[in-house]
Amino acid sequence: MHHRFLLFLFVFTIFTIFQTSTAISIITPNQNITDGQTILSDDEFFKMGFFTPSSSSTNRYFGIWYNKISVTTIVWVANRQTPLNNTSGVLTLNDQGELMIINDRTNTVIWSTNSSQNANNPVAQLLDTGNLIIRNRNDNDTRDYLWQSFDYPGDTFLPGMKYGIDFVKGLDRYLTSWKSVDDPSIGEYMNRVDPNGYPQILMRKGSVVEFNSGSWNGLRFSGMPNLKPNGIYTFEFVFNEKEIYYKYELVSNSVVTRMILSTEGMIQRFIWIERTSEWRLYVSGQLDNCDRYGLCGPFGICNINDSPACGCLSGFEPRFPEEWRRADWSNGCVRRAELSCGGGDGFVKRTGVKVPDTRRSWFNVSMNLEECEKVCLRNCNCTAYATLNIKSRSGCLIWFDDLVDIRSYAEEDGQEIFVRLAASELDRKGKTKRKVRVILIPTLVSVTVLLGICLLIYRKRKQKKNGITSIVIRENNVANEKKEDSELPLFDFNAIANATNNFSDEFKLGEGGFGPVYKGILEDGKEIAVKRHSRKSKQGLDEFQNEVKCIAKLQHRNLVKLLGCCIDEEERMLIYEYMPNKSLNSFIFDEGKRKSMEWSKRYTIIVGIARGLLYLHQDSRLRIIHRDLKASNILLDKDMNPRISDFGLARSLEGSDTKANTRRVMGTYGYMAPEYTIDGIYSTKSDVFSFGVLVLEIVSGKKNRGFRHANHDLNLLGHAWRLYKNGKQLELLDSTLKYTYMLSEVNRSIQVGLLCVQKYPEDRPDMTMVVLMLGSDIPLPEPKQPGFYTERRRPQEAGESSSSNPEWSSSNQLSVTYLQPR
Ligand SMILES: *[C@@H]1O[C@H](CO)[C@@H](O)[C@H](O)[C@H]1NC(C)=O
Ligand SMILES: *[C@@H]1O[C@H](CO)[C@@H](O)[C@H](O)[C@H]1NC(C)=O
Ligand SMILES: *[C@@H]1O[C@H](CO)[C@@H](O)[C@H](O)[C@H]1NC(C)=O
Ligand SMILES: *[C@@H]1O[C@H](CO)[C@@H](O)[C@H](O)[C@H]1NC(C)=O
Ligand SMILES: *[C@@H]1O[C@H](CO)[C@@H](O)[C@H](O)[C@H]1NC(C)=O
Ligand SMILES: *[C@@H]1O[C@H](CO)[C@@H](O)[C@H](O)[C@H]1NC(C)=O
Ligand SMILES: *[C@@H]1O[C@H](CO)[C@@H](O)[C@H](O)[C@H]1NC(C)=O
């Protein structure tokens, strides 16, 4: 009995010693932790020791797991690549401050930490955070740790860990998946901060990128809309010359959460639910199929609500349409129109997106968005830009090549990106932009103020000498709380008088409806066109104001550009860019020059006018009806690009209005739509009619008005319609164009022309449709009978002959005005 008691005492003592030793979180040098012994953190939340991942395995690993959670959950493994196959492993700390696992039988080191610094009385300690550290005994400053397991994570990202790169210490902390649930060795997947370009976190399977969390945008990673401020943890992203890391901290220690990279390559956050004793999935990095990296290829965009999910960014089309139709999107999309680099390119804004892969991007944290745009425009390789930090609305992020891995989210989950497009593509954006535009439409009042300011400044400056200043109109745009500047330079009367040699006849280009037009050469050699409004005409003032109002804000490569205005006493002048090639009608209706207008040029002109008109109707900030579209109002720049001019009769409509009524019908016979001529109703569709007439004139080289045919009494429209009906539309083509035309383009132009001149406005296509029809192979509808297709002989016809000053002739000879009785 006595012996038994002694034995009991002995066992008890051993047991107690064993227990107390585990309660200490610290390991000192030459203290051995053998298999079966465990170490607890001070708060006993974490435990470490040797373990076997599952019953199917006999491998022994040294690791750390949660002590208070009923489901054994390993958060870190030391010897994950070098398991022991029996219980002969020992963990020990040497005097140099290196932790090592030794196979006790063979006395071989199977795993060890490396210490780069000299240790002074080192200890290893399991902290309450689950971090196993080595430090000098008297120094518990986190910055002085000799080593820490948090710098070498496995598949688990714990609160307080820094996830990313420390350039100073040469550390790179990233997750690697386990091979399988019972094998902690390094699996196929890796989720790692990629420091190239602007940093982002890429998840790879082997070397192939499978998922991109996206770049940090100030609030979250661009591709992780679920990463939102919450009551469970706070997070931050730090990026400077010394380090790049992401980190999260618990708000309250009562919640247990961890993030892992699963064996299937899923990034998942779990939260421990004590009540049901389970890890519940809180959020997953990958949401759906659209999160597969680059699913839609370069310049593609993935929208999970679309079917199929892949589409092209606007301005782009599938590279291989056949593949695309078979749901093979990997080759992505290509530009419909090449960038021009030198100038004319612009940007289309796309909101609610995950921004593309930033590995080959450039950024600047201090630039603002306007500077960013400029930098992008200056670099021919730049394809897109965005705000770097959407929280502080600052910084600039620029992409230089293919845009890969864009997806769309709900508006509030995404951010905006500005994609570079050729000017021609920006024109055809059409409808998609309209919604935004309607909100942005500035009050007409503020534009009217412009003229007032013109006058005011003129008075102030009256005593001053020559020179040009500019006036800046600040306009508060309530819709987006953004101030916009529009600048209309004010020219000095004397400067203009000098430029035009005191308005001498040799500088006169022509006589417009409201006064003469002069060519001018400014002191710096710049050529200008000066439209001088008649002094005493009351009508002139209205038209002048109107033109200033309309055109001051318009900017499009197919519209003539207003450079400024000039007001002096009774004088009111508008200063335009000078167009060396004068107007379209001096070419197409001129026996000599007609031949130089080959088909490709004519087609370019047709498309250009269509785009200019589309801009007026839909894309400009005011919805503008030109009301006097005709060959003499289409000017040609030095490259023979068409520029719509003469906005004297133009009217702007508010917001969504598409038609209005006037009692003063003004315009030009031959181009005016029936409903406008007869009822005074003008709309975008009456401009479409004029456009249709213009197209048929350009194709045929004949004027609608004054058209004569031996066999019938029809005008050009009627003639074209008749030919079309009989399948002989090619006879309409200008005889100087034989053999040098593209048949498909000619047929398309004639059919589009006829669709535009249909009698009823509702039958006519809108300009978006026209631009689309001209620019693609979509099947065209059959046109119905045109309006006004028989020539009506009127007395005015006498003055019909080609104007001597066609390029600026506006209303005197060709335009008519009368009051419509109602
Ligand atoms: C234990 O592992 C060693 C290699 O570390 C191996 O050679 C040996 O066969 C294994 N023994 C058992 C019983 O699995
Ligand atoms: C444990 O395995 C090692 C090889 O990994 C071997 O050398 C050693 O003898 C084994 N010990 C026991 C107790 O089986
Ligand atoms: C710890 O293990 C080493 C190597 O296995 C051995 O040499 C040493 O004596 C052990 N120390 C203690 C205190 O057990
Ligand atoms: C320790 O450092 C040596 C040489 O610097 C290196 O070969 C070894 O792989 C390192 N070991 C660990 C566990 O990092
Ligand atoms: C760090 O050490 C000091 C004294 O050496 C001690 O008072 C303090 O509680 C220690 N802090 C931690 C977090 O261990
Ligand atoms: C970033 O932009 C600021 C302001 O435009 C400029 O001063 C700075 O030099 C730029 N930095 C780089 C690296 O280009
Ligand atoms: C644009 O890219 C080409 C080819 O990658 C390169 O040669 C050229 O220097 C780049 N230009 C600029 C302005 O970066």
List the helices and strands and how they pair.
Blueprint: H1 2-23, E1 26-27, E2 33-34, E3 38-40, E4 46-51, E5 61-66, E6 74-77, E7 89-93, E8 99-103, E9 108-112, E10 122-126, E11 132-136, E12 147-148, E13 156-157, E14 163-166, E15 171-172, E16 175-180, E17 183-194, E18 200-205, E19 208-215, E20 233-239, E21 243-250, E22 257-261, E23 267-273, E24 278-284, E25 300-302, E26 310-312, E27 316-318, H2 321-325, E28 333-335, E29 346-354, E30 361-364, H3 369-378, E31 384-389, E32 394-399, E33 406-408, E34 415-421, H4 423-427, H5 431-440, H6 444-461, E35 469-477, E36 482-490, H7 493-499, E37 508-512, E38 515-521, E39 527-533, H8 538-552, E40 562-568, E41 571-577, H9 585-588, H10 599-619, E42 623-625, E43 634-636, E44 642-644, E45 651-653, E46 659-661, E47 664-668, H11 674-679, E48 681-683, H12 684-700, H13 716-725, H14 743-756, H15 767-775, E49 815-819
Parallel strand pairs: 25-33
Antiparallel strand pairs: 1-10, 2-7, 3-4, 4-5, 5-6, 7-8, 8-9, 10-11, 11-12, 13-22, 14-15, 14-21, 16-17, 17-18, 18-19, 20-21, 22-23, 23-24, 25-26, 27-28, 29-33, 29-34, 30-32, 31-32, 31-34, 35-36, 37-38, 38-39, 39-41, 40-41, 42-45, 43-44, 46-48, 47-49
Helix pairs in contact: 10-12, 10-15, 12-14
Signal peptide: 1-23
Transmembrane segments: 438-458
GO cellular component, one term: membrane
